[in-house]
Structures are given as C-alpha cells and as structure tokens.
Amino acid sequence: MKQFRPAKKRVEVSVGESVRIIRELQELSQNQLSELTGIPQTTISAIENGRVNLGVERAKVLARALKCHPAVLVFPGWDNEIESAA
Q1: Residue 65 to residue 76: CA distance in whole angstroms
Q2: Domain boundaries, the chain
Q3: How far is CA 63 from CA 26, 54, 84, in A?
Q4: Which of 18, 39, 72, 82 is exposed most, by the fewest CB atoms within 10 A?
C-alpha cells in the first residue's frame, strides 16, 4: 500500500458546489434534502448558489443527511499538505 499516489486535484469546488455534488451523488432533490434536514428548499438553493453562507450548524445538519463529514462540505478545497490549520 505504500506505492500509491494521491489523486490530483482537477477543479476548484466551492462550498455550495460541494453541497450540490454530494446531494446529486446521493440522488436527492433539493426538496428531498429539505425534508430530511428541515432546512427550507430555498435556503438549500441559496447555499448551493453561493448566496447564503453554509455555517457550522447547517453543515452539521446537512452532513448527517448526506452521510458525510461536515468538513467535506465546509472545506472542499482543503489540502493538508499545503495548508496549516493554525
């Protein structure tokens, strides 16, 4: 297993795009995600289109519904080899 190469990053993804991509991979509509989370569909649309900030609490709720870690939604472009958390 030591002979693997990390995948190359191909495109930049915004927070809203990460929400949309993961939602679509789960084959959920915005309305279905709204029902699962209690977040209005209009707010989900606004998040996906970058008009509303995701925020930590919404990220937690969406992550539970989308079965992923909140960091996947909040930090879609994070590269721990380059960036530091401090």
Answers
A1: 17
A2: 15-74
A3: 12, 11, 23
A4: 82
**CATH (one of 1.10.510.10, 1.10.260.40, 3.30.379.10, 3.40.50.720) for 15-74:** 1.10.260.40
The residue with tokens 């915005």 is: 30
Of the two residues 43 and 85, the one the predictor is more confident about is 43
